[in-house]
Amino acid sequence: MRDIPVGNGSLLVTFDDKYQIRDIYFPHVGQENHTEGFPFRFGVWADGEFSWIFSDGWIRELKYEHETLVTRVVLRNEKLGIELICRDTVASHENIFLRKINVRNLKDSRRNVRVFLHHDFRIFGNKIGDTAFYDPETFSLIHYDKNRYFLINTAPHFDAFTTGRKAFRDMEGTWRDAEDGELQGGAITEGSVDSTIQKDLLIGPNEEREFYYWIAAGKSHDEVAKLNLYVLENEPAEYLRYTGNYWNIWVNKNEIDFQDLSPKIIDLYKRSLLVARTQIDRNGAILAANDSDVTERATDHYSYLWMRDGAFVANALDLAGYPYFTRRFFHFCNDLVHDKGYFLQKYNPDGTVASGWHAAWDVWAQKKLVPIQEDETALVLWALWEHYDKYREVEFTRKLYRPLITKCADFLADFIDEASGLPLPSWNLWEDRRGIHTFTCAAVVGGLRAAANFCELFGETKRQNIYRHCADRIVSSMTTHLYSKEHGRFLRSLEANNGDELRPDATVDASLFGTFYFGAFSADDPMVKSTMQAVEDNLWLSTEIGGVARFENDGYMRSSDQVTGNAWFICTLWLADYRIAIAKTSGDLKGAYDILEWTAERALPSGVLAEQIDPLTGEHASVSPLTWSHSTFVATVVNYLKKRRELIDQ
Question: Is 182 helix (H, G, I), strand (E, B) or coil?
Fold first, then answer.
């Protein structure tokens, strides 16, 4: 789990709940991870006693400063008699991680305190062939491999340093050398290396001292040397103030009337925008999550662009008034779309195809499959029209019309089973089963109607009519084939098993909110009402924590058989969106407001939202932060405010 990420679109630094740096991504958000998830240790020596901050003797408070991407971390060790107050950020415009450390002496005597900062770089994600050395040209420590350089410095300058071997034979690392309060290392080491620096502080009784620490990231020695000089010339204190001010301006750039929302909801709304910003790469990729802990249980991670997540996040940013990032995302989509008009499962931040598990071959029917979840292609079109409808940038969408919009819409219109009128089988949005899914069908309707709107805009009547007819036919076919009179609600899917065999799947699934969200059906349609009532009745968890599970008997990361699944933030917020959609008076919005409060109450103290929460303990589960969780909160808040204004104005 990652509690307080800081980043700028090129450099992302994440911390665990013990306030250890665990991930350093550069030059893309989510790619490459130059720590491989191994911790950078942080320790204090005083009066002959030593303690790493991850140990049990420390009380930790990990938060951000109000409305910025500058952290405020308080670490207190009563036995050691030391309190640390740390402020971390990544510069808004340069690839520099900067930390201010205030060290307070809690005892009534003058003391010599030593702070140790350890670096376990694994450049390019492995420990082979790195070099760590003291550089007399910049008076700093530098780790490098090929064209990746990381420069480490402090102001005032650190008092001692060491480089050495780690994770090799009996050598654990230079952090062990720090534990006696004295560093005894060399000026250069190659191979599997780490380093540690020491800062000595003479602190009077109940007084404090401060210093600054930074890591500059670049592709050459010259680049990091210039960044180091930039910090020194501009002074670290001023640099930190400047960066904090930038993020405060960024998150408050739009004047919003928050109406009746509580301070806690407003704070989480702004924090969600800032956290989502850290997960967006400068080239347009919107990463699902950057938390390398997941690799320990999955041998893979979430540092990918799924078009499903990306489209939802882009839509939320548009709703909140941040079109700059969504336009970069749509341009990125334009570069990635397959020649046949669809998107593959997921992509790396640099645009290469990522790992996947969507089969291209049916082993039972012995035939080719299209290895996609079709909703991803449809959602990009849906989000793109929503973007245009809000900002009316004709020139922007004109450039995407042929290579992206009509190409994808043609695929959606062709990827239809002529007998049923429904889209052909593909993977569902949860990526755990293949078939004809109600959510996918609803998303395709939204995508085709979006494309038809663009065709109308650009005067292509024939193509417009084809897309609208296809969308209308899918809606009619959903009523015939996916609505179950027996259950009085929509099925989750017609699940594909062993080739072309389709089996009705009546599992109640939170994704059924898609029936109204993309406009296939009205939220007031009796079929939708009965479906969403089933979602609330079957998936709202009757525990003290509450929340909505993904679907019945969801085993993914489930903490207990006492519940049908863990609570997911996105699924719970979808229920709020439904309550907003059907509200007829401002009083009807209370149920949605309650879910917004529920979400704000269950965020980490830093304001970070994970993917899931344990419905028995309230602890966050899976990865954090999940960008989709934060974007859904943003979108639901905007939807709530818009509906409330409409109802009050009636």
Answer: coil
Contact in structure between 154 and 212 (CB atoms under 8 Å)? yes
Condensed to tens digits (0 to 9), the pLDDT of residues 575-628 reads: 999 999 999 999 999 999 999 999 999 999 999 999 999 999 999 999 999 999
Distance CA 638, CA 644 (A): 10
pTM score of the predicted model: 0.97
The per-residue pLDDT for range 18-70, each reduced to its tens digit, is 999 999 999 999 999 999 999 999 999 999 999 999 999 999 999 999 999 99
- Residue 179 included in any domain: yes
| Backbone torsion region of residue 9, taken as left when φ is above 0, otherwise alpha when ψ lies between -120 and 50, otherwise beta | left
The first and second tokens of residue 209, run together, are 């001292």
Inside any domain, residue 16 = yes
The sign of the CA dihedral 172, 174, 179, 184 is positive
Q: 561 or 381, which is more confident?
A: 381
Tokens (6 digits) for 542: 């009757």
Q: What is the C-alpha separation between 574 and 592, in angstroms, rounded?
A: 10
CA torsion 321-323-324-330 (nearest 10°) is 150
Gap between the Cα atoms of 470 and 622, Å rounded:
39
Report how many domains make up the chain: 3
Claim to verify: residue 198 and residue 275 sit in the same structural domain: no
Check if the beta carbon of residue 269 is closer than 8 Å to that of residue 633: yes
Half-sphere exposure at residue 475, Cβ-oriented, CA atoms within 13 angstroms: 22
* CA geometry: angle 10, 14, 16, nearest 5 deg: 175
Q: Which of 479, 501, 528 is the last residue of a domain?
A: 528
Tens of pLDDT, residue by residue over 496-519, are 876 668 999 999 999 999 999 999
Which residues lie below 8 Å from residue 480, measured CB to CB, with a gap of 6+? Answer: 420
Give the mean model confidence (pLDDT) for residues 259-272: 98
d(CA 549, CA 351): 32
Domain that holds residue 241: 6-251
